[in-house]
Amino acid sequence: MSENTKTKVVALIQCRMGSTRLPQKVMMDLQGKPVIGKIHDRLKYCKTVDQTVICTADTPQNEPIVKYAQENGLDWHAGSENDLVDRVYQMAKRFGADVVVRVTADCPLVDPRLVDQLVQAYLDDPTLEYVTNILPPTYPDGLDLDVISFKALEKLWNRSRGDAFKSEWINHDLRNNPDVYKTKRFNLDRDLSSMRWTVDYPEDMELIREIFKRLSPNGEVFYMDDILKLLEENPELGELNAKYVRDAAYYAAIEEAKLNKQ
Prior knowledge:
40% of the residues lie in helices and 15% in strands. By secondary structure, it is an alpha/beta fold. A seven-stranded mixed β-sheet has the order 5-4-1-6-8-7-9, sandwiched between helices. It has a two-stranded antiparallel sheet with strand order 2-3. Helix 3 runs antiparallel to helix 5 (150-160).
């Protein structure tokens, strides 16, 4: 639990069944659990997070996610399919979140210590509205985190009404308007952003399963430094998915939005 009892910190696992590159990846098996189950397990090690909510869409396609949450006693919320801002905003209101930590379901290697670092930065300075480690990205792809105050989420909700792109890509407005949202950035001394620890393709899943197999054979928690050491000692693992580009879907969506406005 957070030491600051006046601030409720809710981590959300953003997930949907739809994926053009790797269909139903959020429910794929990872050591006997679906990917979202392993993410939920890793977030239990966060010292600053009070509650974790599986945040999905309220469409028939996503019913397996809701069913999994219900059967395993996990908190969940189902909202708009395409208006992600509204989905997260309504979830935050429902669970009384003062601040939310956004973790996407393609990030099963989410680092609990890194989550705590970013959340603690907010707890130390509650005037902050957005704490992130993607401006610019220096962490491996798959450790991306957004810590968003409820105040910023409300502002974002109002600013994104009627804008399909802004409402679907939740951190687009946040990352591009530091004058609107008081922002704190976390960056590494060295750039590890070319390392790919996310799940978008079968090769990604192959790497993730190998990392869990070697570092967590019995469910042990492990962290970024443990993965870096493993990959340094076994460089062939990093080659499994090295051909894919970071944030390809996001940048493709930006280009499509530009074309639609012409």
